[in-house]
Amino acid sequence: MVINFRREVSWLSAIALTLVVAGCARAPAPEPEPPPEPEPQVQPRDEAAERAAREAEEQRRREEEELRRLETERRRVLSVIGERVHFDFDKSDIRPDAEEVLQRKVSVLREYPGIRLRIEGHCDERGSNEYNLALGQRRAESVRRYLMSYGIDAGRFTTISYGEERPLMDAHNEEAWAQNRRAEFPVTDHGRIGAGE
Amino acid sequence: MLRTARLADPRQSPARLGTVGGVRAALGATALLIGGALALAPAPATAQEPERDSIPTDVRVGILYQPVYRPGIVMPVIAAPPEFTELADSVRTVILRDLDYGDRLEVMSVGDDVPLEGPVNYGLWDQLGAVWLLLGAIEGPADAATLRLSLHDVVYRLLQDVRAFELPPLQHPAFRMAVHSAADQVVRWATSSTGIAATRIAYVDRSPGGLEVFVVDNDGFGLRRLSNDSSIAYSPAWSPSGDRIAYMSYKSDDPAIYELAINPGTSSLLVDLPGMDLTPTYSPDGTLLAFAATVEGRTEVYTYNLAERCCARRLTYARFANSLSPTFSPDGKRFAFNSDRLGQLHVFVQSTQDGSAELITRYIYDQSVHNAAPDWSPTGDRIAFHGWVEGVPQIFTVAPDGRGLRQLTQEGRNEDPSWAPDGRHIVFASTRGGTAGLWVLDVVSGRVRRLVRSAEARLPDWSGRLDSTSLVGVRAAAGPNRDNP
Question: CATH: 2.120.10.30, 3.40.50.300, 3.65.10.10, 3.30.450.40. Which one for B200-462?
Answer without folding.
Answer: 2.120.10.30
